[in-house]
Every structure is written in C-alpha cells, then in structure tokens.
Amino acid sequence: MQASRITTIGATTALLLGLTACGGGGGGSEPNAWVLNGGVWPVVEEDLEAWSDENPDQAITVDSFANDVYKERIRTAVGSGEAPTLIAGWTGGTLLEYVEHDYVVDLTDSTEQLRERLIDSVVANGEVDGSIYAVPMNNVQPVVLYVNQAVFDEAGVEVPTDWDELLTAVESLNEAGVHPFALAGGSRWPMLMWASYLTDRIGGPEVFDAVVAGEPDAWSHPAIIEAMEKVQELVEADAFDPGFASVVADQNEDAQMLADGRAAMVLQGSWVYSRMLEDVPDFAASDDFRFTTFPEISGGEGDPANIVGNPANFWSVSADASDEEQQAGIDYLSEHLFNDTSVDAMLETGNIPPLEGLDEKIAETDDEEFLGFAYDAVREAPNFQLSWDQAVDPSQEQVLLENLELVFLGQITPEEFAENMDATQPE
After folding, report:
1. Nearest CA to 9 among 261, 329, 320?
2. 256 with 404, same domain?
3. Which of 201, 166, 163 is nearest to 306 (CA)?
4. CA separation (Å) from 139 to 13, 44, 142, 313?
5. CATH number for position 290
6. Whole-prediction pTM
7. Closest Cα to residue 179, out of 270, 272, 260, 286?
8. Strand order in the sheet with 135-136
9. What residues of the chain score a pLDDT lower than 50?
10. Tens of pLDDT, residues 220-263
11. Closest Cα to residue 414, out of 186, 180, 422?
C-alpha cells in the first residue's frame, strides 16, 4: 500500500461537543477505545473489559456507537487531537491519511509476534510504506450472497450462479410476487457491494487499483461504466424492493426482509450472519437460510473466486495519546488480542478471526457450514478488495456514495457517474 493523496479532516462544533460528551483520547487520563454496535463487536468489547479486569493499571474504557455515527465522529476526533487511544478503522485511504499526518504510531516491532499468527493477506491491509500502522482486531468480513431457499423453491427457480441466470431469476421471482433482492439503499454503502463485485467480475482487480492509485480518468474505465449499466439494468428489472432507498442497514432491515420471505436474496457482509443468529434464530438455524458466492459474468476478466468486503476491522494507536495510554494500547494488542477466549467467543457468534490454522476449531462449531464457507473464501481468494468507501481517498468517500445513489435511482447515467468521480481524483 502506498501513502498518497492526503486531505485535511474537517471538524464541526456540533460533533466536537458530542465527542466531548463521550470522552476523547489525547490529553485524557486513561486509555480508551471506541467500538461499534452489534455483530462481533460485543465480543471485542468484552475482550477489552477482560483486559481491564486483568490489568487494572492499564484499564481501557470503552464507548460504543452505531456504524454510521462512528464513521462521522472518529474522523472529527482524530483530526482535532481527541481520538481514543485505540482507533478502530477499515484501513484504506483513511489509514494513509492518518499515517501522513502522524495521527497514529508505528506498530511494526511491537506487534511482530501477533502478526505471525494472522492471515498474511489480511495483515497487509495495515501496512503503509513497509511499516505496520494497524492490526486486524476482529473477524474477516467477505461480502456474500444470502439466500432464502424456501422462496426459490416456491417460485420454482434455481439460485443463480451467473449473470444470465440472475436476470432469469429476477423475472421469475417478480412473477411470484417476491422481491428478488433486499437492499439497504438508505445507508448507501450497501450499494458499493454491487458496484465493486460487478467491476471486479467484469474487469478484474486492476480496474479499481488504478482508482486507488489516483490515476487520471480511472473511473472512466469501461468495466466501471459497464458495472453501472448493469446496476441500472437490475433496477429497471425490479430486482430490488421499490422502497430500497429508505431501507437502512444499521437495524438489519435488509436481512430481516430475507428472513421474512419478502426478499429472496441479499448481498451483504459476513457480519450479517452473526446478527441473524441473534435477531432471527429460527430462520438462521433452518435449511432455508443459504449462502453462496457472487455470480460469474461470462467473458469477464475477473476471477470468480475474488471477493470484496472488509478483510477485518483494524486497531491503530493514537499518536495524540499520552505515553502511558499508548503503552496500554500496545500491550493490549501484543499480549491479549486474539487470545483463546476471544477466538472461541468469535466463533461461537458466527464470526471468523483472521488467524491461520482454524480448521479444527471451525469444524467443532455449530456454524461449521457458514464459517467454513467464509474461511475458505478468504484463504483461497486471489484478490480481497477492500470496500470502495474505505479504499478511496477520504475526500472521495461522500461524493462516491452520493453519485452511486444517483446511479441506483436512475438520476444520472453511468457516463455521468464516471465523469463526476474522475473530477475527484487527486492531482
């Protein structure tokens, strides 16, 4: 990963006031960490609490946030010097920015033994210019296609394995009175899963690599144009719930539609599996709850084994924290992260740590089928594309989400999308 394309993190008075109420990092009296709600995050929070119980002199306090709220607040906190000691992130363009502005510390030497236990392709996402500034801290998160098999059986159609079969299934499912796909368009970022898989299947990983590298006109690559055309082809074919623009992901609304039988499929991250175990345990335990890979596209240059998503969430240590706070955070990472208790807890909740040699543990779980499927997908993928909103320069993130939403809503053409995004490429 190469460091480049840096922007300044802005701050607003309202967000700063909100951060003060929650407790910031730099200048604080004790180490702290911010985590997200739901999925595997309670396991992360419990692990931090266990560390604090065992190490009262280095106790780490924890605050939790909904996904979208966290993304807003952490940017402001880091840029204002009020970051928590342990900064949870997705690497990509944001980590590049953190490193260029010296917002985070070098973890290369202090986490060497930890990294020896982890999957190399996941670890690599925390590297900038040969040094480690972030280490994975929770589960691998490939995006998979979830299926309600009962809906397919009732409609008399097979689960699609390629694009032509997908279009046929969309038509048949609509005739059966069910939405082919649920989509949490109100959260915007689930739309990225479609854009990134389609682009990769059509043009291969090199297409988006050029975007991340800041190459001029990279967004105008024919594969991206075609991906946006296919998005609009799906919308016009009524592939998505007509109300998708108001469905949000934070409350798992899209997955709930799958469980209720209102939708036949949903393209979502592996984190949805653990949430469904909690929210709809009967459906999650049934034979109707299935999962598979994103369909192939005939003639496409991308390997059908490629996956997209988040290799994991990552911890970085704030450079604005005091020496004592930094040491507490580093000791937690190097001495406690991915201990046996937390690894077992992740697996028990349907999540896979990015560790080598988990086959036997996975085989002993009640969720062996899904965990084995996701674990093999990660280990065998020729390319694991980080989610676009995390991979791009932070200055592009909101513009990307806004323009992609306009594509889904049919308010701009694929060519206009490319033109608008090319204008954001750093010079």
Report:
1. 320
2. yes
3. 201
4. 34, 10, 10, 7
5. 3.40.190.10
6. 0.80
7. 260
8. 61-65, 32-36, 86-89, 314-317, 135-136
9. 1-27
10. 999 999 999 999 999 999 999 999 999 999 888 999 999 999 99
11. 422
